[in-house]
Amino acid sequence: MKNETDRDNRVCGVLLGLAAGDALGAGYEFKPAMEAGEPVGMIGGGLGDFAPGEWTDDTSMAIVMAQALAASGGTASEEACTQMVRGWADWAKSAPDVGVQTSAVLRAAESLARRGGRELPVAADAIQAAEDAHQRTGRSGGNGSLMRTAPVALAYLHRPVEEAFAAAAKLSALTHFDPEAAEACGLWTAAIRHAVLTGQLDLRCGLHLLEPARAGLWEQRISAAEAGEPKDFSNNGWVVEAFQGAWSAISAATGHGTGQAPLDRRVLVEALEAAVRGGVDTDTVAAIAGSLVGAACGARAIPGEWLGMLHGWPGLKAVDLGDAALELAAGH
Ligand SMILES: [Mg+2]
Q: Which CATH number is 2-330 given?
């Protein structure tokens, strides 16, 4: 029973860690890096004038995914993808902080649907709109798909890592055409899944799923993150540096892979605070970090004060995220 309880704790830690990092970083978005030890709190404010403890687009978009995956038996089916696109489009109509790339893609997907005589967009409209945006601008490697991998890892917890990786890449492409975003999502999803299953942090556990040249590049990026600190990756609106900033924060908190540090509250809090102190896209980097460090440390490592404050669209609180995580991880 103990093992099951521990695993449930880590399952809940995925979505609650995501939300805790998101709400912690919300008040510091687009501010410069902070000094080590400078206080960080759930102060609210930021771009969306959020309340203290309120999560932002990162968690809200993940909730839409969690609901769609749960409704489709935990599979990233076409129906689930369409439900996500429609759910995001609905959310974006009233959200104060939709990412630039995501917002453009969702609007273009709705317009493609109308031109095709459909009242509402389907998954293929979003995929086409994401590719069009990439061709038009030459880039689409924003961090907006990496911030929402948490539900994919939970839905694919009991399936082979190859399937989890592929689903993460597929769901990334709903808004982000750039293959780098897909690779980052696949690697992060594999690491969250591994952390829930084993209680261990290993960001390299999905590298073997990439082509050797790509695996080598990502190995270098992971090593650079471990050698640096979050503020070294200040171009963190780009998916690669968001990935590196989040891992840098976790790596430092755990003693740079020495295996010495127990994965407890201190590690979780230090990792999330370090992610925020890295500056710029603070809520997203801390949300990404939170989904992985929360998976490893478990929900019980999140300070009760934070859990009590957490809330956000669509009218949910911490307990609801825990329930959603357990449902996703068990539901197939
Ligand atoms: Mg955000």
A: 1.10.4080.10
**Gap from CA of 56 to ligand 1 centroid (Å):** 4
Q: What is the pTM of this model?
A: 0.97
Centroid of ligand 1 to alpha carbon of 46 (angstroms): 9
The tokens describing 229, both together, are: 């600190």
Q: What is the pLDDT of residues 277-322, one digit of tens each?
A: 999 999 999 999 999 999 999 999 999 999 999 999 999 999 999 9
Instruction: Quote the CA–CA distance of 168 and 53 in Å, as a whole number.
Output: 28
| Centre of ligand 1 from the C-alpha of residue 268, in Å | 19
Distance 332 CA to ligand 1 centre (A): 30
Whole-angstrom Cα distance, residue 324 to residue 308? 17
Residues lining ion ligand 1 (Cβ < 5 A) are 56-58, 283
Torsion of CA 253, 256, 262, 267, to 10 degrees: 10
Q: Which of the 8 DSSP states describes residue 142? A: B
